[in-house]
Amino acid sequence: MSGTRSWILRAFRVLNALIIMGSFGVAGFVYGGFRSVQAMLPADMDLTRYRPLGTTEIYSTEHHKDGSVSHTLLARVAKEDRTPVELSRVPLHLRQATIAIEDERFYEHRGIDPKGIVRAAVANLRSGRIEQGGSTITQQLVKNVWLSQERTMDRKLKEVLLALQFEEKFSKEELLEMYLNEVYYGHGAYGVQSAAKTFFNKDVSKLTLGEAALLAGLPRRPRHYSPYVNPDRCKARRRVVLQKMVEMGFITPEQAAETDREQIQSRLAPLREEGVAVFRAHYFTNLVLRELCNDPRYGADAVYKGGLRIYTTIDLQLQKIAEELLTERVETLRRRGQISAAPVGQGALACVDVHTGDVLAMVGGVGEWKRTQYNRAHPGPPQYGRQPGSSFKPYLFATAFESGYSPQSVFSGDPIRIGTWTPVNYSPRQGGNYSLKQALGLSVNLVAVRLIRAVGIERTRRQASRILNIPKERLAPYPSLALGVSEISPLEHALGYATFASGGYRPTMRLYHTIRDYTGELIEYRAPERVPVISKPAAISMIECLRYVVTSGTGRRASISGMACCGKTGTTQDHRDAWWVGFTPDLSCAVWVGNDDNRPMYGASGGGFAAPVWREFIRRAVDILGCDGKYPEGTGVTATRGGERGDEDEEDEEDEETEESPATTSRRITVCTVSGGLATPYCPDTVERVLSPGESAPGPCRIHRPAQRASADGGAGGQSVRPSSDGGTVTVTICRQS
Q1: Can you give the pLDDT at residue 55?
Q2: Which of 220, 239, 260 represents a domain boundary (last residue)?
Q3: How far is Cα 458 from Cα 477, in angstroms, rounded to an integer?
Q4: What's the confidence (pLDDT) of residue 48?
Q5: Cys staple from 475: which of 461, 542, 549, 639, with CB 3.0 to 4.6 Å?
Q6: Are 54 and 84 in contact (CB under 8 A)?
Q7: Helices in 677-720 by DSSP H: which ranges?
Q8: Separation CA 195–CA 201 (nearest Å)
Q9: Which helix (H) or strand (E) holds 354?
């Protein structure tokens, strides 16, 4: 007996020791888990300022004649499609449905619900499968926000301890709001607002009882209960939610029965893609995303997770017109066989506000977006666009006007050879002398080649890079730059020409003007910026010359009745690119047509292929916006280099001024700085002089004359030639400058 008692005592001692050791082990495990949770938790401030990942929305900005402004949704962008909302915007029946099906003792427990755990375990044992979960709404929230989805004891312990801490820091209303904004409902929709938009295309505040019950039943198994994938299972799940709401007294049996009779799919919105969902203006919208993701102030995380509200400059009224007109023109050229068939034969358009640099319309290609995603309107590196051809010449001419030449300065269009390069004019009939105004209007290539040599290639590169706001290194350091051999995008071109229309101020490209967070708080407002890059007289001279292109030159097909349009054609070698770039006092627009594979087009010209699109687009855009701007007032440049006058066309005679009598008024003349005589078109350096009343003008310069055929005695240019004593050399008079 005593032996039995002794054995029992020893057994109790061992059991007691085991219990103590187990208690310490459990305590250590719990303490270790608690410390690991503490190490994992953020600071109190971060925890209390919890903000879920949000969906970024991108909007257009439409301006109307009456001065009003409207916005249209262009795209929704998200890693997780989520738009956080305050609990007050969530209808009561959705809150009740969520509590009824997910955590009926939500307002009674302090983070964990032992009764709920036991109840779920019993239900699952009876059914033989997992039908109910024991996790509270608070536990589900902390699991989604701070923990992984792995099923381990360590993760479960962290979940419990973290839930207890959340309950201490937040009220029940705050926890429910966070949960409803965090939980996943399926098909890329995170949070109740995104779910309402995804499944019913309405704001969460407008959900009916049936819609709310449907959504409340999805988080447990979103794919399994999806109304798109399994409508029958979804309806059965909704019935369970409604029954739970009846049991908790949230609704009556009659309400549940009536709601249960509603069809599941009759109210559903069309299923849309997850992630980036662009609805309109694909090329422009993706350019905005590219710019913001590359901006160190934002980056991809802020764009895809920050729930931003981005208000862009694109005007969908103009965008729609641009897409229609360019598509119609490109398809016509395809049918005629003048460009390649789809999708190779292409076009692009970019339109900006002259004064603000706002991108108002952008079409990066014609055809289905999925097949033609390359943005020809502004591709960016490594390919920056296409060769602009003669549409580049205005940047050269603007440089010349800043360097002492004027629209009346005269240059030759006769053949020229530079090393092994022999440039040619568009037409063999374009020889002879031209004023710069005429040469630009008629697009005389050899005048442009002579001009860039006179002005300087490096000076032209520097000035053109400032006007276009691009690195100088992108511009070829050769005389062929005058003919547009360096790549430029239509958007860069439109911004460059805006410099002329604005009086010499280059506007900074603006893709968006306002960014707010999902609550509406302002993050950034981008004010328009303009940088002076050429003088006002030079800009006015450019307006004069580019206006002449439309009225009397290669751009007549861009003319609009009653509107002072300016612009320039561009056609590259072998007809591989066709351009028209032009402006009004308010809008600057570039249109390009070509083949993606760079094959030549048939009968291409900027005036024939691109100008008609520009003309109709600008005509309608000006009417929609109610534009009534005017070009800057003042006078253009006055030449200090080269001749002032050449053999002008008859149609340009109306620009000549009537010379007044020297006996009654003072006169301004241009003289050669070498000879002191009246400057001729061949004087390389000139200066202006004012003659007093009655003072006679000097005779013409006798040094700088056109080259003449050598005479029989070996003379050249009419100058005498003296043979040397040894008969092997001759002495001639030459210009020390030229």
Answers
A1: 83
A2: 260
A3: 7
A4: 46
A5: 461
A6: yes
A7: none
A8: 9
A9: none
CB 499 within 8 A of CB 467: yes
pLDDT given at position 371 = 81
Give the bridge partners for 567, in sequence order: 582
For residue 351, give the nearest of 584, 594, 74 by alpha carbon: 584
Q: What per-residue confidence (pLDDT) applies to 679?
A: 78
Residues of the chain with pLDDT under 70: 1-52, 114-134, 145-156, 273-276, 642-668, 671-677, 684-698, 702-738
Which strand (E) or helix (H) includes residue 308? none
The residues near 44 (Cβ < 8 Å, ≥ 6 apart) are 169
Contact 435, 646 (CB under 8 A): yes
Largest CA distance in the chain: 156
506 with 600: CB under 8 angstroms?
Answer: no
Among 255, 314, 318, 325, smallest CA distance to 287 is for 314
Residue 551 counted as domain residue: no
Residues 20 and 109 in one domain: no
Separation CA 702–CA 106 (nearest Å): 104
> What was the pLDDT predicted at 518?
84
Q: Which of 442, 589, 229, 280 is nearest to 579 (CA)?
A: 589
Distance CA 533, CA 452 (A): 19
Rounded distance between C-alpha atoms, residue 507 and residue 588, angstroms: 11
CA count, 13 A, side-chain hemisphere, 227: 25
The total number of residues shown for the chain amounts to 738
Residue-averaged pLDDT of the chain: 83
Closest to 387 in 3D by CA, of 482, 312, 300 = 482
**C-alpha to C-alpha distances, 34 to 31, 40, 142, 157, nearest whole angstrom:** 5, 10, 15, 8
* Token duo for residue 297: 């102030």
Would you say residue 505 lies in a domain? Answer: no
The per-residue DSSP string of 475-518 comes to: S-SSGGGGG--S-B-HHHHHHHHHHHHTTSEEEPPBSEEEEE-T
* DSSP symbols for 606-625: IIIIIHHHHHHHHHHHHHHH
Residue-range definition of the domain harbouring residue 247: 80-260
**399, amino acid identity:** T
pLDDT of residue 641: 78
Which amino acid, residue 38?
Answer: Q
Residue 18 sits in the same domain as residue 85: no
pLDDT score recorded for residue 89: 95
d(CA 465, CA 399): 11
What's the number of domains the chain is made of?
A: 4
Q: What is the dihedral of CA 536, 542, 548, 553, to 10 degrees?
A: -170
Nearest CA to 511 among 55, 57, 56, 58? 58
DSSP 240: H
Whole-angstrom Cα distance, residue 413 to residue 419?
18
User: Are 129 and 35 within one domain?
Assistant: no
pLDDT tens column, 51-94: 667 789 999 999 998 889 999 999 988 777 788 899 999 999 99
N-term to C-term CA, the chain: 135
Task: Please state, in angstroms and rounded to a whole number, the distance separating the CA atoms of residues 182 and 176.
Answer: 10
